Amino acid sequence: MAYNGGPMTEAMYYVLLALMRPNHGYQLMHAITEVSNDRLKMGPGTLYGVLSRMQKDGLILLAEDDGRRKTYQITPKGEHALRIEYGRLKALIEDSSILREVDEDE
């Protein structure tokens, strides 16, 4: 199933964010934890499942495989999808301005 531009999973979003700089699996797990401000800690099983699906969808590619490590990088399609998701999330926050108004009224 190809990525259709709908809402991303949290794992997909943070993998793409972390891959704004190419990384291999072990580094990528740490980069995801860092860019998510420790909210998301991804184990190898989850990470490699997400990487495999995203590679099939053309959002990332295998940049290098030296036999020991596989280095992944985001593709232009992946960066475009990440920016669309960022805009969607930003709009959700902006649409929630009513919460601020309710808080101010109390």
TrEMBL record:
Top-level taxonomic group: Bacteria
Start and end residues of each Transcription regulator PadR N-terminal domain: 20-83
Organism: Pseudoneobacillus rhizosphaerae
PANTHER family given in the database record: PADR-FAMILY TRANSCRIPTIONAL REGULATOR
Protein name: Transcription regulator PadR N-terminal domain-containing protein
Segments traversing the membrane: none
Pfam families on file: PadR
